[in-house]
Amino acid sequence: MTTLAALGNLTSKLREIHHLRDASAVLSWDQETYMPAGSGAIRADQLATLQTFAHNQFISSEMESLLSSFLDIETGTILPAHQASLDEPAHALLRETWQDFFRAKKLPSSFVTELGRECSIAQQVWVEARKTNDFHRFLPNLERLVRLKQKEADYLGYTDSPYNALLDTYEPGSTVAQLRPLFATLRTHLIRLLDQIRNSPIQPNTDLLTQSFDTGKQLDFGRLVLKQMSYDFQRGRLDLSAHPFTTSFHPTDVRVTTRVFEHDMPSCLFSCIHEGGHGLYEQGLPTQQYGTPLGETISLGIHESQSRLWENSVGRSQSFWQYFYPKLQEFFPTQLGSVPADEFYLAINRVEPSLIRVEADELTYNLHVMVRFEIELDIIEGRVQVEDLPEMWNAKIQEYLGVTPPNDAEGVLQDVHWSFGAFGYFPTYTLGNLYAAMLFHQAKKDMVDLEQNIGQGNFLPLKNWLHDRVYRWGRQYSANDLIQRITGQALTLEPFIQDLEEKFGNLYKFPTTSSPQAST
Ligand code: ZN
């Protein structure tokens, strides 16, 4: 049995290419955190150059010949001579590398340069447009990006919808045909629960969360929580950015960001926990596989399952606050000293339809995702003009959430995604929520004392469980296969709906249905 060592030349080449990608990721991180605003144009050029170099190296004849010594370059089939001699990880490495190669090969390098530059510029224009509440300022950039993404789908090829080609970059294997019925069923459950919550006599007092909280202390508390989750600050950092995110250049350099508002304490707190979940995944990838698919995360849906598991299943649970609430009260004695834990727990779990996705509660969050999914489909399939987006956005938000944005900054301009060409990205957030619930249910089954440990601030058993089942495999399994391996089930809504029923049934005191009919 030959192991990964047999792939030595190929993995060295893949590592070299990764160095270019990581350098470009450092520049992107810097652009979002510390770069002076005046250097935007040159940064766009620098990023475009690095991305093109990496792309050209990846689709080079050298890569083709390295791959060809192991597989049929047209079909990806491993050559008979290697079929039996390569072990399972080696097979997976070749399969995933070939898929990436085959896909990248379809994109001309002039297109990659154009897209890279346009994304970097559009992102900077978006920042200004949102600040000044001026959709028309962003419109020409967005129109160009939509055209480029439609072109990308054409280059990549697709069945049924060009949206499938874009979706596949973020969540391989996922399709519009799979998402439509899944989201429709989910929506029915969410609306039912929302109605029950609306009719409940319980009204959480969220004023306690919008008192004045010193921003420095908020960041210190965020850092404390991250440390306790065993996010490793020797191999990571926490910085500020407009939109919280996680980026990684290697498992020994994984960076998370947050944002902090004096009068909105949950924002910094939960973004730290959320990004911490992403960060743990990146820090837990196998370093010896760095640069190869076996050292990479599977999909955005699985990535998001890690952040959502920590943010919602853990960070918004009673056990978590059993441990952390006394500590939070010590940080903010004037604001929270006399607030009972139950009242705080109810406040951080309040469900209320709102305008902003990233601030949305666990339940209505998914309705925000569905709105974006439908709009993206219409845009990419060419049924709607980009200039009509604000109107369409407002109508859909009203239809799904019953609220109307007072301006575009709180409406169509709120998300960064489209400004960097990320169409097809949003559905992975809801997939992440569903995967997270499936994983947490399984973790509870596997570790009977899990919640007791969380209540004592001992998160190591959970982190180790995730490491063993998710982090260490890189892309050896597809998202579906991994979930099936861990839980014994394919993607299902049931655990997620069950969690919402239980939590909000208890909090808002409405009768829960014993068996949610959600297994579609
Ligand atoms: Zn996330």
Describe the structure.
The protein is mostly helical. The protein folds into two domains: 4-157, no CATH class; 176-508, Neurolysin, domain 3, CATH 1.10.1370.30. The chain contains 22 helices and three strands. It has a three-stranded mixed beta sheet with strand order 1-3-2. The radius of gyration is 23 Å and the shape is globular. The two termini are 42 Å apart. The model has no long low-confidence stretch (mean pLDDT 95). Zinc ion binds at residues 274, 278, 304, 307.
Structure keywords:
single chain, 520 residues, mainly alpha, Neurolysin, domain 3, 2 domains, three-stranded mixed sheet, 22 helices, globular, binds zinc ion
CATH architecture of the largest domain: Orthogonal Bundle
Topology-level CATH name of the largest domain: Neurolysin, domain 3
Helix content: 55-70%
Oligomer: single chain
Report the order of strands and helices: HHHHHHHHHHEEEHHHHHHHHHHHH
The shape, in one word, is: globular
Sum this structure up briefly.
This protein has helices at 8-33, 40-58, 61-68, 80-83, 88-105, 109-131, 135-156, 162-170, 176-198, 215-228, 265-283, 300-314, 318-331, 333-336, 341-348, 365-380, 389-401, 427-446, 450-455, 460-469, 479-487, 494-508; strands at 236-240, 246-250, 253-258.
